[in-house]
Design the sequence.
């Protein structure tokens, strides 16, 4: 009998504790959003140089092309650490292959630029016929982390504003925040050249027009979910 009474007491105590822990506050849940578009200021350009036969006779070597590119990069004010070799193609048994007049070596480089106008300056100083291809490797905005913080704050304020006018519409007042969670995403549209670099190879290097560069912007978006008490 004592055991039955003790079990009943424990059960009643548990139910009482559970009832006390149930959140009976009136609440409202909203999602705030903020976004901004910025132009990338850190662009990593890939460029591949390849040997070719000038007038189908004299080979323009990779060393000559590389020297042109190095001088162009220096004259454009690019820092040493922002110019690097990515890959070397055809360099297996290089010195033996060099004896073969049909062998054409190539090298791939990566250049980090902050000013897009520097690209035209660099490309203009390199023999276009020795450029196999160029491409955008990646790009970013240098103050992206600072912007993300600002966006999260704006998104939270947006959530509070939404909650405020919604509860006021039913003649209630907004209380403090009960729960806040956030999630963000970035959209990176692929930047592009208006004129393809490959078109330049069909023209004389001295007269070939440099491609205009048009970059789409990066869109940074922040979303914040917030739960507020309704007084």
Sequence:
């Amino acid at each position: 009998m004592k055991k039955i009474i003790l079990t009943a007491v424990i059960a009643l105590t548990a139910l009482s504790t559970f009832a006390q822990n149930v959140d009976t506050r009136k609440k409202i849940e909203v999602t705030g959003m903020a976004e901004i578009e910025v132009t990338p200021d850190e662009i990593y350009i890939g460029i591949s140089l390849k040997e070719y036969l000038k007038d189908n006779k004299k080979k323009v070597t990779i060393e000559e092309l590389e020297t042109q590119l190095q001088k162009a990069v220096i004259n454009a004010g690019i820092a040493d650490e922002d110019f690097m070799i990515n890959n070397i193609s055809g360099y297996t048994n290089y010195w033996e292959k060099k004896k073969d007049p049909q062998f054409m070596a190539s090298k791939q480089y990566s250049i980090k630029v902050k000013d897009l106008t520097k690209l035209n300056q660099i490309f203009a100083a390199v023999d276009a016929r020795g450029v196999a291809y160029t491409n955008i490797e990646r790009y970013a905005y240098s103050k992206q982390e600072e912007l993300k913080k600002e966006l999260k704050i704006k998104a939270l304020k947006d959530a509070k504003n939404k909650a405020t006018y919604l509860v006021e519409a039913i003649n209630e007042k907004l209380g403090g925040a009960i729960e806040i969670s956030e999630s963000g995403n970035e959209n990176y549209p692929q930047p592009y050249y208006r004129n393809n670099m490959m078109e330049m190879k069909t023209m004389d290097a001295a007269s070939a027009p440099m491609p205009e560069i048009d970059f789409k912007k990066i869109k940074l978006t922040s979303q914040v979910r917030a739960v507020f008490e309704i007084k």
Observations:
- The first helix runs from residue 2 to 21.
- The chain is about 30% helix and 35% strand.
- The chain has a mean pLDDT of 78.
- The longest strand covers residues 174-187.
